[in-house]
């Protein structure tokens, strides 16, 4: 039985063991997937011990994605650009780091929600790690335009500059969104975690806009409630992204692509 785990702090509420157990069962993989807690500052010894004791792969969640990035012997292009790793794999004595968050987001939007990113006007709210982690896969879809809005505008400008080779990115403050509309609005701020709303002006959603919150929750987040009140065409939280990023990690480890929809539906019921 191959051993995997998710490491984080806190970790007790992680849905990853459930998701991977479902994937393993559905694809007939003989594997075990645990939760691994590490004290702050203790990522490296805990991860090292896990791999030294037969661990094959680790998912990494907050606040350790940067530690995992530095821990890996080799990282993929996606992880390098994200400066964060959420998937570690031991192969031939070396640790490989990948980041599947952006792939997960794009798969959820394009495949599950059936909303194209290509040719669309995309607005990303926030300029922290969550947004950095998804920029490359979003730009790879070749949106018509990609706008990053952040409270601290210089952080949005810095991201736009760093990713300029991958596509045209506009960086703005929230005020500059006044009078504009977008086809896809993705909340990548941490506001939903504290039940807050990013300061978006009224009118950015149209009846055919997708409002997507990268955070998932039981009811609608404040951002999704706002989108709903403005009659946005479609609302989605980050549960689909969570399951899709897990599926991509599973594929990296086991070389099998698990089906996701049933697992997402089951999780939705668990959360309700
Ligand atoms: P993460 O890694 O989750 O992205 P982060 O790097 O701390 O976390 O970034 C949090 C993001 O949420 C930032 O874009 C932050 O805006 P600032 O860069 O201006 O701080 C944004 N954010 C958090 N609380 C916010 C609020 N009340 N209103 C608007 N933006 C907020």
From TrEMBL:
Known catalytic reactions: shikimate + NADP(+) = 3-dehydroshikimate + NADPH + H(+)
Pathway per the UniProt entry: Metabolic intermediate biosynthesis; chorismate biosynthesis; chorismate from D-erythrose 4-phosphate and phosphoenolpyruvate: step 4/7
InterPro entries in alphabetical order: Aminoacid_DH-like_N_sf, NAD(P)-bd_dom_sf, SDH_C, Shikimate_DH, Shikimate_DH-bd_N, Shikimate_DH_fam, Shikm_DH/Glu-tRNA_Rdtase
Quinate/shikimate 5-dehydrogenase/glutamyl-tRNA reductase domain location: 117-191
Keyword Oxidoreductase: yes
Keyword Metal-binding assigned: no
Binding site for NADP(+): 77, 126-130, 150-155, 214, 238
Residue sites binding shikimate per the record: 14-16, 61, 86, 101, 216, 245
Top class in the EC scheme: oxidoreductase
Residues at the active site: 65 (proton acceptor)
UniProt superkingdom: Bacteria
Domain called Shikimate dehydrogenase substrate binding N-terminal: residue spans: 6-88
EC number: 1.1.1.25
Residue span(s) of domain SDH C-terminal: 238-262
GO MF, one example: shikimate 3-dehydrogenase (NADP+) activity
Keywords annotated in UniProt: Amino-acid biosynthesis, Aromatic amino acid biosynthesis, NADP, Oxidoreductase
Protein family (similarity comment): Belongs to the shikimate dehydrogenase family.
Physiological role: Involved in the biosynthesis of the chorismate, which leads to the biosynthesis of aromatic amino acids. Catalyzes the reversible NADPH linked reduction of 3-dehydroshikimate (DHSA) to yield shikimate (SA).
Quaternary structure, from the entry: Homodimer.
HAMAP family: Shikimate_DH_AroE (MF_00222)
Protein name stated in the entry: Shikimate dehydrogenase (NADP(+))
Lineage: Bacteria, Pseudomonadati, Pseudomonadota, Betaproteobacteria, Neisseriales
Gene name of the encoded protein: aroE
């Amino acid at each position: 039985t191959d051993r995997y785990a998710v490491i984080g702090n806190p970790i007790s509420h992680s849905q990853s063991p459930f998701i991977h157990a479902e994937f393993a069962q559905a694809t007939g993989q003989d594997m075990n997937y645990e939760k691994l807690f590490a004290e702050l500052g203790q990522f490296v010894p805990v991860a090292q011990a896990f791999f030294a004791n037969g661990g094959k792969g680790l998912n990494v969640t907050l606040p350790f994605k940067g530690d995992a990035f530095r821990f890996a012997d080799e990282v993929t292009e996606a992880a390098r650009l994200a400066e964060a790793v959420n998937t570690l794999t031991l192969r031939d004595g070396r640790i490989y780091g990948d980041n599947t968050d952006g792939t997960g987001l794009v798969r959820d939007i394009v495949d599950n929600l059936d909303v194209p990113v290509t040719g669309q006007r995309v607005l990303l709210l926030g300029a922290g790690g969550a947004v950095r982690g998804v920029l490359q896969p979003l730009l790879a879809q070749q949106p018509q335009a990609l706008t990053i809005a952040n409270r601290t505008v210089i952080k949005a400008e810095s991201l736009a500059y760093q990713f300029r080779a991958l596509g045209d990115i506009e960086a703005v403050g929230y005020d500059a969104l006044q009078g504009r509309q977008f086809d896809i609005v993705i909340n990548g701020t941490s506001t939903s975690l504290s039940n807050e709303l990013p300061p978006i002006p009224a009118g950015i959603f149209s009846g055919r806009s997708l409002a997507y919150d990268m955070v998932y929750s039981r009811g609608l987040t404040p951002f999704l409630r706002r989108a709903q009140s403005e009659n946005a065409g479609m609302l989605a939280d980050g549960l689909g992204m969570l399951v899709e990023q897990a599926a991509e990690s599973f594929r990296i480890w086991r070389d099998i692509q698990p089906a996701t929809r049933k697992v997402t539906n089951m999780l939705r019921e668990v959360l309700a």
